[in-house]
Design brief:
By secondary structure, this protein is mainly β. The protein contains three helices and 35 strands. It has a domain of 39 residues. The model has no long low-confidence stretch (mean pLDDT 92).
Length: 691
């Protein structure tokens, strides 16, 4: 509200959100800057109409134009101040061929005018527009952009382009940019260059901004050698103080490289880069650090079946300030894909190492409309306060009343990280028509995958390059998944079997301490279709799930469970089916109070897909939860999946209809009822438009 316009001041932030403190007025004058009011959000409307065209008076002349008008009404409930809703934008482009022959010369020019009241629905300029013009604060007023230049081209050999740009925002900003780009592809040389120089003046600051990037490559048969350079010099001086602003910076980077091979097939390139950085210190741009980088870029194998590429970069950052240690970093990326024995075995490997930072992340929970959030709050200790450890992922839409909002962190820890993934597929399908043992193997199919990502605290010059290192020393983050699925008669629904084994582990660093989660699964599924209409599905599994929280002992548990499900489906057609199922589950907690759950679930479901873009599916289920332990605890919420001990009933219905090519209608309804409570009904209607 602004200082003196409210009776509250900001105090602190909790899991429930921001907390404000009342400050009594003094002599009738408010002392705070917040007030307990809710602003009414008025409906708005933004419309835009565009007309464009072109004119070609001759083969050497091309003229294009575009005009747009926008209508931006910020309050549809009121007609006050509607006189400034409309704005216009104009654009003209022209190109003239000045000379044609062995070489070509074109002149081009363009002009854009955008009124201050014009509002576009989509972005008008590229995402780097503000930085290109040093627009740290977007000026207001009518905007005009004039462009003119020359293009010289030697077909299939070289091009040179000069471009002049003039940008104005009424009287608040004026800038001029000169851009030069060149490309030459000669017999043994390839030269690329891009540079720009900006000089601007505004009500807030004046600036100069120079940038350039150049590559020169010499080819010697299958070999090449070259140099490259990049530079930026950005100096913005504030009008009020005459000092350089915080966006001012300067760097210069140069290096050389050599390579051999075909860059589209098999090749290798090694190179060296040196970069010096100047930053703002005591109002001046002075040298703060420099770095030396050595890199290898290669594709070592490239065939119809195989692909192996490797990139690695080692950088050592030296600081000019005495007493500051050098900072090394290693970035590596290896990608390998291959197929063996006529696609019998398929292998995919990815490996990466890199340096980074990890934040000791702080977060809060903010209440939103039911169904719009992700989390629900359970007051486990009954004190009426929303505490971080009392929020759970909501299993039902009516409970999803909170979202997690991450707060800006001031604590970052430097890390060395590695990431590895491996996938192996065995597919003996090609032996379908074979005999003997190969015929038996053709019924099987196996997929195995392993992935891991580790984050360790950076220590001196030591790098974490081993993705299989199980050491706990300095480990800050971990995500590990190991999975294998073995199929028999995959996808055939004829005595089909699927065995799945899964193990996963995750660790994260939060401001409230470390959190760990582990999961394990053994699952066997049998599917068989008989008499062309009856589908039997039998599933059994054993699973484990463990959670460890460093500072919240009430969230520590280790669950072991066994499940079995039988389902019989009657297939009316390929588009309609009706199911009857029964499921048994037993879960026990091996820590704390040794809670136990014995659950029986049975019910029926259906699915239908119409011929005219209509689908519907639904389910009704009865559950009997035999639970021993405290029902109001994190472990109970996890084991009961948001339901209550005793008798429970759940139901759901989803209807989807494609109204037109660009319009879809979704109707969703679900409900539940627990023993001794009233039924809860949740529904939603969604109309989606595709543009």
């Amino acid at each position: 509200m602004g200082q003196g316009n409210g009776d509250y001041v900001f105090l602190t932030t909790t899991a429930a959100g921001k907390v404000f403190e009342y400050v009594a007025p003094v002599d009738g004058i408010s002392q705070g800057n917040y007030a307990p009011i809710i602003p009414l959000v008025a409906p708005v409307k933004l419309q835009m109409a565009t007309i464009m065209g072109g004119f070609h008076p001759s083969e050497k002349t091309d003229v294009k134009f575009e005009a747009a008008i926008s209508n931006n009404d910020k309050n549809l409930f009121s007609t006050e101040d509607d006189s400034d809703n409309q704005g216009i934008a104009l654009k003209f482009d022209g190109r003239q061929r000045l000379y044609s022959g062995k070489w070509n010369l074109d002149a081009f020019s363009g002009y854009q005018l955008i009124q201050s009241r014009f509002r576009a629905i989509e972005r008008l300029f590229n995402i780097e527009f503000s930085r290109d013009w040093n627009l740290t604060e977007t000026p207001t007023g009518t905007q005009s952009l004039f462009v003119s230049g020359l293009d010289f081209s030697l077909p299939e050999k070289s091009t040179i382009s000069y471009r002049l740009e003039k940008l104005d925002f009424s009287t608040q900003f004026s800038g001029t940019r000169h851009l030069l780009s060149a490309y030459a592809n000669l017999e043994k040389w390839r030269i690329q260059h891009q540079s720009s120089y900006l000089k601007s003046d505004g009500t807030r600051a004046s600036s100069t901004f120079f940038r350039q990037q150049s590559d020169v490559v010499r080819r010697l048969g299958r070999n090449w050698a070259g140099t490259r350079s990049r530079a930026e010099d950005n100096q913005e001086r504030l009008k009020e103080t005459g000092l350089l602003s915080s966006v001012s910076q300067r760097f210069f980077e140069y290096g050389a490289f050599v390579g051999r091979g075909d860059s589209t097939k098999v090749f290798a390139e090694v190179g060296y880069l040196r970069r010096v950085n100047d930053s703002l210190q005591d109002g001046r741009l002075i040298r703060v650090n420099h770095s030396d980088s050595y890199y290898l870029k290669s594709r070592l194998l490239k065939t119809d079946k195989s692909d192996l590429s490797l990139f690695t970069n080692y950088r050592l950052l030296h600081f000019e300030k005495e007493g500051v240690k050098d900072v090394p970093s290693l970035t590596t990326r290896l990608l390998y894909n291959d197929r063996f024995f006529a696609d019998l075995i398929q292998v995919s490997t990815a490996y990466e190492t890199f340096a980074g930072t990890i934040a000791q992340q702080e977060f809060s929970y903010v209440e939103v409309e039911p169904g719009r959030g992700v989390y629900t709050w359970n007051d486990y200790n009954g004190n009426g306060l929303q505490e971080l450890q009392e929020f759970e992922v909501a299993p039902y839409p009516d409970q999803a009343k909170y979202v997690r909002v991450f707060l800006p962190s001031q604590v970052f820890i430097r890390t060395h990280q590695n990431r590895f993934s491996q996938a192996v597929t065995l597919n003996p399908l090609k032996w379908t028509n074979a005999t003997g043992f190969r015929k038996v193997l053709s019924h099987f199919y196996d997929q195995a995958s392993f992935s891991t990502e580790r984050k360790r605290k950076a220590e001196a010059r030591e790098f974490d390059v081993n993705p299989f290192d199980g050491s706990e020393n300095g480990l800050l983050g971990l995500a590990l998944t190991l999975r294998n699925s073995l199929y028999f008669n995959r996808g055939k629904q004829h005595h089909s079997l699927t065995y799945t084994w899964l193990k996963s582990e995750a660790r994260s660093l939060l401001s409230v301490g470390a959190q760990e989660n582990t999961n394990g699964l053994h699952q066997l599924q049998y599917v068989h279709l008989f008499q062309k209409s009856w589908l039997v599905t039998l599933t059994t599994e054993a699973n484990t799930s463990a959670t460890y929280s460093e500072n919240y002992a009430g969230r520590n548990f280790r669950l072991e469970g066994k499940e079995g499900e039988s389902k019989v489906s009657y297939l009316f057609s390929k588009n309609a089916a009706w199911d009857v199922f029964v499921q048994f589950k037993e879960v026990s907690n091996r820590l704390g109070d040794q809670e136990k759950l014995s659950q029986t679930r049975w019910g029926t479901s259906f699915s239908f897909t119409g011929s005219k873009d209509f689908t519907a599916n639904g389910e009704v289920a009865l559950l009997r939860n035999g639970y021993s332990g405290n029902a109001l605890s994190p472990v109970a919420y996890t084991m009961l999946e948001g339901l209550q001990p005793g008798q429970n009933t759940t139901w759901r219905l989803l209807v989807q209809k494609t109204l037109t090519q660009y319009l879809d209608l979704n109707i969703s309804y679900q409900g539940r009822k627990s023993e001794g409570t009233k039924a809860i009904h949740t529904g939603s209607i969604q109309l989606r438009a595709f543009f």
